[in-house]
Amino acid sequence: MAALVALGATPVPKIFATMEEGPIPGGMNPGEVWLESHGRSLGHFVAGTWLKPPGRTSLECREAATGRTAAVVPAGDSSDLAVAVAAAAAAAEAWAGLGGPERGQRLTRLATTLDGDCRGTMGALLALAGGRPLCQTFGADLDLGLRLLRVPAGGVQVPGLEGWTPLGVVAVVLAGPCSLPALLWKLGPLLAMGEQHGGTVGDLGDSLETLGTTGDPGDKG
């Protein structure tokens, strides 16, 4: 024990007394680094671009565990929804025309990307938004969410769905704050079947992960 204290490690009894998390491997919280790289000012993510309409009231995205402001986003209105719907409509025909197998492969690549180089950043952002310890966030939020994306991506590659006709642009309505699994539970099957996501309707003020993405998941926005 004395040797651990000399090395600067937190004594085990103190860990059990405070139940605090240990340092993140690498020293820097990748979620905080990502937010800082965006000036802690996000926007409406539409067709691979952060849109920040001028003159809008800012909504605070708060860290669930401490209540501090992690980032701000502009309040949305009907004009923002119209922009998102137009972007989704522009991409809808091409996305539907890919066919089930190709859509499934693209969604699988998206899940692989999020589970690869982006995993640390995604997990850290979800921990900030949800208030879970990072180790629980990976399993309860990120891994579960990615499974909810991979399952329909795999199912749509099975022969027999060629006759299905996509409906087009759809909106996803979720109560906020919204978890990543809740979002992908709705989006995964819709995107796999060829629909386009026209936006997420819900309370965006308290949750970073509910920022809607619109467009082709195969794009590198």
Note down, in words, how this protein is organized.
There is one protein chain. With 221 residues, the protein is α+β, with helices and mostly antiparallel strands. The protein has one domain (32-210): Aldehyde Dehydrogenase, Chain A, domain 1 (3-Layer(aba) Sandwich), CATH 3.40.605. The protein is 47% helix and 13% strand. It contains eight helices and six strands, in the order αααββββααααβαβ. The strands form three sheets. The chain has a two-stranded antiparallel ribbon with strand order 1-2. The protein has a two-stranded antiparallel ribbon with strand order 3-4. α3 crosses α6, α5 runs antiparallel to α7 and α6 packs across α7 (134-155). 34% of the residues are buried. Residues 3-7 and 201-218 have low confidence and may be disordered.
SSE diagram, text form:
Blueprint lengths: L1 H5 L5 H7 L11 H8 L6 E3 L2 E3 L6 E5 L6 E6 L3 H20 L2 H16 L3 H12 L3 H22 L13 E5 L6 H13 L3 E6 L20
Parallel strand pairs: 5-6
Antiparallel strand pairs: 1-2, 3-4
- In CATH terms, the superfamily is Aldehyde Dehydrogenase, Chain A, domain 1
Topology as H/E string? Answer: HHHEEEEHHHHEHE
Ends distance: 49 Å
Largest beta sheet: strand ordering: 1-2
As residue ranges, the low-confidence spans are 3-7, 201-218
Helical run tally: 8
> For this structure, what is the CATH class?
Alpha Beta
Report the sheet with the most strands, covering strand number, pairing sense and barrel closure: 2 strands, antiparallel
Overall average residue pLDDT: 80
Strands, total number: 6
Q: Which CATH architecture?
A: 3-Layer(aba) Sandwich
- Evaluate the radius of gyration: 20 Å
Number of domains: 1
> What is the CATH topology assignment?
Aldehyde Dehydrogenase, Chain A, domain 1
Protein name: A16A1 dehydrogenase
Pfam families: Aldedh
GO molecular function, one term: oxidoreductase activity
Domain Aldehyde dehydrogenase: 50-194
